[in-house]
Amino acid sequence: MAPSLINWGEGEARAWGERTHVARHDLDGLDIFARKGIARIIDAMPRSAVHAYTMGDDPCDGATWRRGDVADLTGLQLLDIVDQGRLWLNIVGAGHHVPELGAIVDELYGEVSSTVGDAWSTLKATLLVSSPSAQVFYHADNQPNALWHIRGEKKVFVYPRREPYVSVRQLDSIAAGYADEQLPYDPAWDASAEVIDLKPGEVAWWPQNSPHRVVNAPGEPSVSLSVEHRTTASTRTERRQRADFHLRRTFGLTPPPGKWLDPVTLVAGSALAKVAPKQRARNERAVSFVVDPEAEGGVKSLA
């Protein structure tokens, strides 16, 4: 019998999905997450699933978040550039494309399910490999996820799920695909944030839709596994948000904040959401650079 990847108790079970929390895990001891293992994962992925980004230093300037092309660079070449540059690699669907990793994710979430009593309709694993001091700007994810940290250190700021940090309309627009997950940010809000200093062998999670941002520590690249875990409850929340968006957009109806619509209106809103053209606002960033080992920071801007 394989050793457990987690050893959680009642505290983790009570906190899962309900509040911001940090727990322990043993993923960082697996060979697949050593440098050569990560390089092999990258090499096994279709190029279209290895998303490269770069960004500026100012946490208020989300416009500096730029999409790049990794071209035909190998996994080891990309890791070398990440070490010295300012890159953030999202290796999307890694659990699907790499069976060994997919089996680990399934085993891990089987253990989580046994502990917290939750069940998943889908799991989506994205391997995150990023440079020292790189950051992800203030945003809110549509579905709940957990950040399983493996290498380096990073600081995670988690903000309340209410105005002024995020509005109901913003969350509805994100769920409907009409708005990017990135949100306006005010540094003064840090006073209300829960701050997590995430270290290897730790996993952090927070309630669905909670705004957050991430800043890597200097000195060492960062590796994390982000797993989106869709549940019946989280899907119901998403459908309600999409219904609210389309009812507001089509008929001007505004449901009370935090309240469910009556069943008839909710069905009508859900029907509108199904027939409305699906937007992809959050995925529309054009490629503006090529990852290049000869360029400063590994970023060669396109004309």
UniProtKB/TrEMBL annotation:
What the entry lists under SUPFAM superfamilies is as follows:
Clavaminate synthase-like
Name recorded for this polypeptide:
JmjC domain-containing protein
Which species is this record about? Dermacoccus abyssi
> What lineage, starting at the top, does this entry show?
Bacteria, Bacillati, Actinomycetota, Actinomycetes, Micrococcales
